[in-house]
């Protein structure tokens, strides 16, 4: 796709933002399999989950649940903190993790003072810098 000399219009859209939570995989196995939890990773796959609720009239949900996985750093600078989750193919880590997210709309960006087509990136940068500051 050749774009040199072309005018490309950017538009703001709703996107998800949140945090990643980590917990022992054994806890998820016990909550999902109950008395069969000891078979997780053997004759049963390690357990996963999906969460859905709402808060302040917004959907809140889990995303990219990683059973038997780990949280990995994805920051681009030392002044920003960004993470993601992953599972190895064997899913044999002692931990599980998932992102817990909600939506941010263009109106939210305006209310927060992030204007223009790249306002979402500005919000992301602020959130990642604050996360790095808090450690």
Write the layout of secondary structure elements.
Elements: E1 15-24, H1 25-33, E2 52-55, E3 58-66, E4 69-73, E5 83-87, E6 95-104, H2 106-111, H3 119-134
Antiparallel strand pairs: 1-6, 2-3, 3-6, 4-5
Features:
135 residues, alpha+beta, four-stranded antiparallel sheet, two-stranded antiparallel ribbon, 6 strands, 32% strand
Q: Can you describe this structure in just a few lines?
A:
Helix content is 23%, strand content 32%.
Molecular structure report:
The protein is α+β, with helices and mostly antiparallel strands and 135 residues long. Helices cover 23% and strands 32% of the residues. It has helices at 25-33, 106-111, 119-134, and strands spanning 15-24, 52-55, 58-66, 69-73, 83-87, 95-104. The termini are far apart. The model has no long low-confidence stretch (mean pLDDT 95).
Gyration radius (Cα, Å) is 19 Å
Secondary-structure element order, as H and E?
A: EHEEEEEHH
Major sheet details: 4 strands, antiparallel
Percentage of helical residues?
Answer: 10-25%
Q: In what range is the share of β-strand residues? A: 25-35%
**Low-confidence spans: pLDDT under 50, at least 5 residues?**
none
Number of DSSP strand runs:
6
User: Strand order of the main beta sheet, please?
Assistant: 1-6-3-2
Average pLDDT, rounded to a whole number, is: 95
């Amino acid at each position: 796709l050749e774009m040199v000399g072309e005018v490309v219009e950017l538009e703001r859209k709703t996107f998800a933002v949140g945090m990643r939570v980590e917990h022992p995989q054994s806890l998820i196995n016990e909550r999902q399999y109950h008395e069969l939890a000891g078979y997780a990773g053997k004759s049963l796959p390690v357990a996963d989950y999906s969460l859905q609720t709402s808060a302040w009239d917004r959907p809140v949900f889990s995303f990219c649940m990683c059973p038997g996985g780990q949280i990995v750093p994805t920051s681009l600078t030392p002044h920003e903190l960004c993470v993601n989750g992953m599972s190895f193919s064997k899913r044999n880590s002692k931990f599980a993790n998932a992102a817990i997210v909600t939506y941010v709309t263009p109106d939210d960006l305006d209310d927060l003072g992030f204007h223009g087509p790249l306002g979402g990136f500005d919000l992301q940068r602020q959130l990642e810098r604050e996360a790095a500051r808090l450690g």
